[in-house]
């Protein structure tokens, strides 16, 4: 059997023959050497060649339909970092001509180092002072798995025979999808395969999925959900009051990590795995259920009396957010309510959620025709929104515009007219 052509995007499909399943390359797409540097480009189909057969998969999947889940891989993507994608022929089109920015995957002089962390395995620790807003790193996924194939679940049915048949079919499809995931890993460049196998693995009977499940991030791309494996991101441990935040740019398949607060040399860099704006009990339960560990961060280690105060402050932030969104207050009172909200975010160190408070405060001061306070909160909101959702997010764009010329915005003009 011929070897796959180098620097080509290969489409591999599951096929069944005489009870034995084979993975074959159905199409060979445009070689990356003929395209600008390192984008993921789809082109015209070329000659087919075969890959060694894998373990028999029973009856296999239906062939040549847009619903087949297939493996696409590009060893030359992102400067040779490579990527494997498990999805359908229809959805792979959205990845055409993706080009990561030049700074993505540049780990030549990172501002951190990996160290053993007591009770956490390993983590990333700052080696120099990082200021709020500093980019810590940016990376691209090495694996993207379509959530429709790997999300699990299914509808309940009252008919026992139908339920049993559905369960057998679901187990069969799960087996095929696991084989696809294993194949996707095997098609990565050797350096990325080593990074994948060095990831933390949960206890289980599938070496590939036992690494994907605890390390994958949910990524939203063009209206669809994928699970992405980014090895560098997987080294960041959880904290309910994190000092870093990440945002994903679907257009370039780039995940960016920025400092939320100043980080001193020797301090661990952390992100949050859950919404931190919850009570301590809710946070602990969410982390146990999804990741199986007991959080011991500073917010979860407070004595009972301080935990109760913290929980009340968190609940109050939710109440004030809803109050401002519903517009319950008179126009002149909204700035005071917004200031109270921002103060609670600061006291609770909820920097990951503070952007919403600053956005509401900027709008409230704008509606009150208060120039300097509008300017102050709009600048804070623009920065925080860009860190949280990217510079192109609606809140970041709106707040940057408001910070530039408050008097020209609709909220200001409405206040003047009234």
Automatic annotation (TrEMBL):
InterPro entries: SET_dom, SET_dom_sf, SET_domain_protein, TPR-like_helical_dom_sf. One of its GO terms (molecular function) is methyltransferase activity. Residues 110-274 form the SET domain. Transmembrane segments: none annotated. Residues 148-174 are annotated as: Disordered. It comes from the Eukaryota. Keywords: Methyltransferase, Signal, Transferase. Residues 154-173 have a biased composition (Acidic residues). GO terms for biological process: methylation. Residues 1-21 form the signal peptide. This is Lysine methyltransferase. It comes from Metarhizium anisopliae (strain ARSEF 549).
């Amino acid at each position: 059997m011929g070897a796959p052509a180098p620097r080509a995007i290969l489409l591999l499909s599951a096929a069944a023959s005489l009870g034995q399943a084979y993975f074959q390359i159905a199409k060979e797409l445009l070689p990356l050497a003929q395209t600008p540097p390192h984008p993921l480009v789809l082109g015209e189909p070329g000659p087919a060649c075969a890959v060694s057969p894998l373990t028999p998969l029973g009856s296999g999947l239906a062939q040549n339909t847009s619903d087949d889940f297939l493996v696409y891989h590009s060893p030359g993507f992102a400067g040779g970092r490579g990527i494997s994608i498990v999805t359908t022929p229809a959805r792979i089109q959205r990845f055409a001509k993706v080009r990561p920015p030049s700074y993505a995957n540049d780990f030549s002089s990172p501002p951190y180092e990996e160290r053993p962390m007591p009770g956490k395995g390993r983590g990333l620790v700052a080696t120099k002072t990082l200021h709020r807003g500093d980019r810590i790193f940016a990376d691209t996924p090495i694996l993207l798995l379509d959530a429709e194939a790997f999300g699990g679940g299914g509808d309940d049915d009252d008919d026992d025979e139908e339920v049993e048949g559905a369960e057998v079919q679901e187990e069969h499809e799960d087996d095929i999808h696991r084989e696809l995931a294993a194949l996707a890993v095997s098609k990565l460049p050797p350096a990325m395969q080593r990074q994948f196998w060095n990831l933390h693995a949960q206890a289980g009977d599938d070496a590939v999925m036992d690494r994907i499940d605890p390390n994958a991030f949910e990524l939203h791309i063009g209206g669809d959900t994928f699970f992405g494996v980014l090895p560098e991101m997987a080294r960041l441990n959880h904290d309910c009051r994190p000092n870093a935040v990440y945002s994903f740019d679907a257009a370039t398949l780039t995940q960016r990590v920025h400092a939320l607060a100043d980080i001193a040399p020797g301090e661990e860099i952390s992100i949050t795995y859950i919404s931190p704006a919850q009570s301590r009990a809710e946070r602990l339960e969410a982390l146990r259920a999804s990741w199986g560990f007991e959080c011991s961060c500073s917010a979860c280690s407070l004595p009972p009396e301080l935990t109760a105060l913290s929980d009340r402050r968190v609940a109050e932030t939710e109440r004030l957010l809803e109050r401002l969104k519903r517009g319950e207050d008179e126009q002149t009172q909204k700035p005071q309510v917004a200031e109270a909200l921002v103060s609670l975010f600061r006291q609770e160190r909820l920097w990951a959620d503070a952007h919403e408070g600053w956005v509401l405060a900027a709008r409230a001061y704008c509606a009150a025709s208060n120039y300097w306070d509008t300017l102050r909160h709009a600048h804070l909101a623009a920065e925080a929104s860009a860190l949280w959702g990217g510079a192109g997010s609606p809140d970041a764009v709106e707040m940057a515009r408001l910070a530039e010329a408050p008097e020209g915005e609709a909220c200001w003009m409405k206040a003047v007219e009234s």
